[in-house]
């Protein structure tokens, strides 16, 4: 009965568009009050003690007024600003979703690719030069979301991992045919490229040799930190982009050890992008279609023909080593049962930089029961 009652509040797209802000808030208020009433009755049955005649409700006018007052003070002091940040977005519902509104069903299959981005400068910091390998040196990346490559702003590496420059030897004809017959498909990156050198994580060289059916000969090794500030040409719009240092999310468990980074389409990418001041590109509209900012892909569905078009363009321009289906868990909209995307949207932010120390001083004057010395010791993580 609980699920049936909740599902009755879900409205179709046409009815949603007809709702004015005031009508929507009134509808939400009625639903919230009914839920509070049901929850209160349940608590009483369970024997939970509480001041049931004076509940703490965020929709009370007094509470709303106090919040508006605080917000106004923050706005006047410049703490409130407009910005963009990636969120889970449902094209089928045309709305952002919280983590609790996502499902991760088994069996989702993505079109994954191993792609290459050509380096144009390699100012390695350790004194080991990679200039001798230019212009034939490329970064090898792996992604399950090729549609995000138009928004690529960097390639991230793990500063502590060891990387190798490998020379690619073309596969024998029988090996190439066997790969074409498997689930994976070799791309056109090897065509018309007599000399090709790739940067990949050293630990993944044997794995990539087996997967691609290519012989990879190690020519040089270096740390990820040595690759910072190398620059490559974006494979679609030909702008220069940097190699940056990412976090511990970059491992050798899969892929190549280098991560295609689009700050407008991923939380970890966003954090790395903020660190380096990267542009937050997100040429995708509310319906999950490419905008005019995506050029030739404008109007295409990023989870459908748009994704395929990006893969096709990269392959035609000799930028794909392999394409293969990848089965994994992927976030779906719990209402429509359709896949979601990560997409940067305009949002309001509240900066704590201007009053961080004031807040920490106030917290330090609070008597915690039980004592919270350990919690307070993590103040920088909390604030």
Automatic annotation (TrEMBL):
The keyword Methyltransferase does not apply. It comes from Vitis vinifera (Grape). Residues 12-372 form the Aminoacyl-tRNA synthetase class Ia domain. Keywords: Aminoacyl-tRNA synthetase, ATP-binding, Ligase, Metal-binding, Nucleotide-binding, Protein biosynthesis, Zinc. It comes from the Eukaryota. GO terms for molecular function: aminoacyl-tRNA deacylase activity; ATP binding; isoleucine-tRNA ligase activity; metal ion binding. This is isoleucine--tRNA ligase. The keyword Nucleotide-binding applies. The lineage of its organism: Eukaryota, Viridiplantae, Streptophyta, Embryophyta, Tracheophyta. Coiled coil: none annotated. Its EC number is 6.1.1.5. GO terms for biological process: isoleucyl-tRNA aminoacylation. SUPFAM superfamilies: Nucleotidylyl transferase, ValRS/IleRS/LeuRS editing domain.
């Amino acid at each position: 009965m609980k699920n049936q009652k909740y599902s009755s509040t879900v409205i179709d797209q046409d009815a949603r568009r007809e709702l004015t802000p005031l009508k929507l808030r009134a509808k939400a208020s009625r639903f919230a009050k009914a839920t509070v009433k049901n929850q209160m009755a349940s608590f009483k049955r369970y024997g939970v003690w509480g001041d049931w005649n004076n509940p703490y409700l965020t929709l009370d006018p007094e509470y709303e007024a106090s919040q508006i007052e605080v917000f106004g003070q923050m706005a006047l002091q410049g703490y409130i600003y407009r910005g963009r940040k990636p969120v889970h977005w449902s094209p089928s519902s045309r709305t952002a979703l919280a983590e609790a509104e996502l499902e991760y069903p088994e069996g989702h299959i993505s079109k994954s690719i191993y792609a290459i981005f050509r380096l144009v400068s390699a100012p390695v910091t350790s004194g080991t030069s990679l200039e001798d390998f230019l212009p034939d040196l490329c970064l090898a990346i792996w992604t399950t979301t090729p549609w995000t490559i138009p928004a690529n702003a960097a390639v991230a590496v793990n500063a502590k991992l060891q990387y190798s420059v490998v020379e690619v030897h073309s596969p024998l004809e029988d090996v190439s045919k066997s790969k074409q017959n498997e689930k994976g498909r070799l791309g056109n990156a090897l065509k018309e490229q007599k000399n090709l050198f790739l940067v990949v994580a050293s630990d993944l060289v044997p794995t990539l040799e087996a997967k691609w059916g290519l012989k990879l000969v190690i020519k040089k090794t270096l740390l990820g930190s040595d690759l910072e500030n190398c620059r490559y040409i974006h494979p679609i719009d030909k702008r220069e982009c940097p190699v940056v240092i990412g976090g511990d999310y970059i491992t050798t468990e899969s892929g190549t050890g280098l991560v295609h980074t689009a700050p407008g389409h991923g939380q970890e990418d966003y954090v790395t992008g903020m660190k380096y001041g990267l542009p937050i590109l997100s040429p995708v509209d509310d319906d999950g279609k490419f905008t005019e900012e995506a050029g030739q892909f404008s109007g295409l569905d990023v989870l459908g023909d748009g994704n395929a078009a990006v893969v096709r363009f990269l392959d035609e321009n000799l930028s794909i080593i392999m394409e293969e289906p990848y089965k994994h868990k992927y976030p779906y909209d719990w209402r429509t049962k359709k896949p979601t995307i990560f997409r940067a949207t305009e949002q309001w932010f509240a900066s704590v930089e201007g009053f961080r120390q004031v807040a920490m001083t106030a917290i330090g004057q609070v008597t915690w029961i039980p004592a919270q010395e350990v919690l307070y010791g993590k103040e920088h993580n909390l604030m």
